[in-house]
Every structure is written in C-alpha cells, then in structure tokens.
Design a protein that fits this description.
Elements (H helix, E strand, L loop, with lengths): L1 H8 L12 H29 L25 H15 L5 H26 L8 H21 L8 E3 L7 E3 L3 H20 L7 H18 L2 H7 L10 H19 L8 H19 L2 H7 L1 H20 L9 H7 L4 H20 L6
Antiparallel strand pairs: 1-2
Helix pairs in contact: 2-3, 2-9, 3-4, 3-9, 3-10, 4-5, 4-10, 5-6, 5-10, 6-10, 6-12, 7-9, 7-10, 7-14, 10-11, 11-14
Length: 360
C-alpha cells in the first residue's frame, strides 16, 4: 500500500525511490509487525482475561500444566493482525504471490478461530468437529494449490526440486495440485500439534519463516537463482515481505508467549502459521527443504501417528504421551528445557536446510 504512495512521491523527491528495494521494505515489515504486537498485545491479553477466554488443561497430561488452566488463549489473532497489516503496508499488492500467501494464512486462521470459539466460548470440548475442520482445510488448501498451478508461467513453478542435488527436479504437472495441498494442510496441522508448550511452536516458526525468506529472495532474483541453481520463480521475491512480517509478528508474540506464558496461541494462530510456512514453501519450490527445516514439526506429527497406530494395533504405547514434547516432560525434563532444546534442534535443521543453497 505504501509502495504506491512512495512511487507517486518519487516524482517530487528521488529519495523515495529507496522504498522500491525489497530488503528495506522487508526490514520495515519486521519492525512494523513488532510494533503492532507490542502495542496491541497488552490490551488484547487484558480483554481475553476479562472475558475469561482461558485455556482448559487436560488432567491426564503432565501435572505441571494444571497451573496453566485459565491462561488467556486465542492470542494467535495478534499474529494475524500484525502480519496482515504489515504485509498490506509494505508489500507490492500487485503481486499475486502476496495475496495467495496472505489469504491462505487468513483462511486457516479463520478455521482455527471457529474451533477456538466453539471450545472456549461455547464450551464445546470437541470444538469444530474434525470432519468439518478437515473439510474447510481441504477447501482452503486446494484453492491455494489450484491458484498457484493455474497462474504458473514457467515449468519451474510446478516442478519438485530435490535439494543438495545439482539440476535434479521432477515435473509434477497436474499432480502439483495434490502435492501442494498436502504440504499446506500437513504443515498447518504439524504446527498445531507442536503448539503445546510456552513458545515451543512460535520460535521454530520464526526461524523457518526467516530461512524461507532467503529462499524466496533467491528464487525471485534471476541472477541469484542462476548462481545458486534454484528454480527462478518470477515475482516470488515479494513473498520476502510477508515472511519478514511473520518473523516480526512471531517475535512480538513470543514476548508474551515465552515461559511462563501470559497468553497462548490457540488454533487461530497455530493452524494459520503452519499454513503460511507450507504455502510459502510451495511458492518458492522448497517443500522438501521445509520438511528438513521443520523437523521438529515433523517429529511431533510422527509421534502422534506412531502412538495412535501402535495403540490400535498392539494395545501398547511407544511414547509416555504424544505429541513428543509431552513424552519428555513425563520423563522428568522441566518445560523450559524441552522448549529450548527443541529450539536448538530447529536452529541446526534450519542451517542444514540453508546449506542446500550451496551444496549441489
């Protein structure tokens, strides 16, 4: 939005031309999202507390969690507000990728909002029924995948890139739609499963979003793309502004969500953040790299799948409790230790993923 204004003002003063630079607008995107989070966060938390929109804690989980009962939740709405405003202010709104990633994120946020509303305000412990939640996730995920497929202008935009291998990719054709759908919906639910401890899902999301911003910048610049041997995707560089806003909003939310949390994210934030990472990875053709960098999310999801499968087949559990972070809590790890160690693992995996830019 402000880009249009600065493009008009440049006729009066060439200094306004600096806002054409993607790097500057990305930095401003981070700072804007941070400021919005710091300004909106405290009154939002007070309002959630006033209306008693608090977390309900399972009695069969770690006993240390019982003290968290009543902590305000649905705070993920703060992230969506910060990301939305910051992106609209600093991104080029003529770019299709900006609208695809932003609208997909907001769509999954609405699904999470309905789920949280039913659980916390209507006091329905089931929330949004699983079949309806999955149906609307499917609608949103397929819509994003179809739009990306139908608006693709180069073969690289629908090819599966194999990281660490030079010039190795596979053209997916129409299968791209199904593949992209699974990445977006799978990423959304993976982050949602990880969001079980104070800041556990927030910091990995920030780290992965920051790394994806680098991939988006490289893929959107023809010279960098050719040099680094990544698919050149015209226009995808503008997604950097969205990723930057996501980093700023995530850090701003972490200010209130760090242990001991003043507010929880809720499904409104977790489902949206996961979808955001998924759709950006699809747009930049880095789905397999997302699988690597988001290894914590993958491990949490696999722990649930293995736990459920093992119990149904053998009647025995593999982990003391799933998702995986609860297993370590029940082994005696203090919550801060679980959180920080999962963060450290994410830092390592993000570096491994970024190495794919040079290792070919």
């Amino acid at each position: 939005m402000l880009l249009f204004l600065t493009e008009w003002l440049v006729q009066f003063d060439n200094a306004f031309g600096v806002f054409r630079y993607l790097t500057l607008r990305s930095i401003l995107g981070v700072l804007t999202a941070l400021v919005i989070s710091f300004v909106v966060g405290p009154p939002m938390i007070r309002r959630l507390t006033w209306y008693k929109i608090g977390q309900t804690v399972r009695t069969d989980g770690p006993q240390t969690h019982l003290a968290k009962s009543g902590t305000p939740t649905m705070g993920g709405a703060l992230i969506l507000v910060a990301v939305g405003i910051s992106t609209l202010l600093w991104a080029d709104l003529r770019n299709r990728y900006v609208w695809i990633v932003l609208l997909t994120t907001l769509a999954f946020g609405v699904i999470g909002l309905v789920d949280d509303y039913k659980k916390l305000i209507m006091k329905n412990p089931r929330g949004l029924a699983a079949r309806y939640k999955y149906f609307w996730q499917t609608v949103a995920g397929l819509a994003a995948a179809l739009v990306l497929f139908l608006t693709a202008t180069t073969p690289a935009e629908t090819a599966l890139l194999i990281p660490y291998l030079k010039d190795v990719s596979f053209q997916l054709g129409p299968w791209y739609v199904l593949f992209a759908y699974f990445v977006i919906v799978g990423s959304s639910n993976a982050v949602n499963l990880t969001d079980g401890l104070d800041g556990l899902a927030t910091m990995p999301t920030v780290l992965v979003a920051g790394a994806l911003a680098l991939f988006a910048y490289a893929a959107g610049n023809v010279e960098f793309a050719n040099y680094l041997k990544v698919p050149y995707v015209p226009g995808v560089g503008e997604v950097v502004v969205f990723c930057a806003a996501l980093v700023g909003a995530g850090l701003g939310f972490l200010w209130f969500n760090a242990y001991p949390a003043q507010v929880f994210m809720g499904d409104v934030g977790a489902l949206a953040l996961g979808a955001a990472l998924g759709v950006v990875a699809v747009a930049t053709r880095q789905e397999l790299v997302l699988f690597i960098m988001g290894g914590v999310f993958v491990a949490e999801t696999l722990s649930v799948m293995l736990q459920v499968g093992s119990f149904k087949l053998t009647g025995k559990r593999i982990f003391r409790m799933a998702p995986l972070h609860h297993h370590y809590e029940l082994k005696g790890w203090p919550e801060p230790r679980v959180i920080v160690r999962f963060w450290i693992v994410t830092v390592i995996l993000v570096l491994v993923g970024l190495a794919s830019l040079k290792i070919r």
